[in-house]
Amino acid sequence: MLYGAGCTGRYTRYHYPITFSASANCVRYCGGDVYFADIDPETALLDINAVRALLEQHPKGYFSGIIPVDFAGYPVDLAAFRELADAYGLWLLEDACHAPGGAFIDSKKIEHRCGDGSLAELAIFSFHPVKHIAAGEGGMITTNDEALYKHLLRLRTHGITSKSNEFTETYAGEPERGGWYMQLQELGYNYRLTDMQAALGTSQLQRVDAMLSRRQEIAKRYDDAFAGTAIQIMVPPGNVRHAYHLYVIQVDDRKGLYDFLRTKNIMAQVHYIPVHLMPYYRQFGWKPGDFPSAERYYARCLSLPMFPTLTDKEQEYVIESVKEFVGV
Ligand SMILES: Cc1ncc(COP(=O)(O)O)c(C=O)c1O
Question: Where on the phi/psi map is residue 249: left (φ > 0), alpha (ψ -120 to 50), or beta?
Answer without folding.
Answer: beta
